[in-house]
Design brief:
single chain; Endosome-associated-trafficking regulator 1; coiled coil; ENTR1
Amino acid sequence: LKEENAILRSKINKLQIFSETQADKLRKLERTLKENKIKEEKEAQDLEAMVQHVEQNLQLMTKRAVKAEASATKLKQENALLQVQLNNYRTENEALRSGQLVSLATVKQNADLALQKLLAVLTTSRSSIKQLVSGAESLQLVADLLKSIDRISEAPEDGQ
């Protein structure tokens, strides 16, 4: 009986040691589980914070993209308007250049016509000047004759 008791005590001791070992393993596993839960919760919080941060960044980028698209659309409209204005200015410039050529031709024709009239007036005035000079010379001759006659008529009066 003592021997059986000793065997049973030995078994009980072994079972207690095994139980304590199992209890230690269980405590370690519970501690590891608790640490893992805490770690997972922290990771979940970090992940949630990261997701929120990414969502905020996404919202900001979306706002920027919308602004950029609006700006690009506005710039495209301005560019199209400027292209139309440029084409209008080019057309107007070409019209003015062709108009200048027409105006230049008209001015040249007018200048040629004025030159012809001026030459005609010059020719007429030369003949008129020649006639005036000839008339002046004739008048001078008549004046000289009248003076001579006046001297002639004065001379006999002096002689009498």
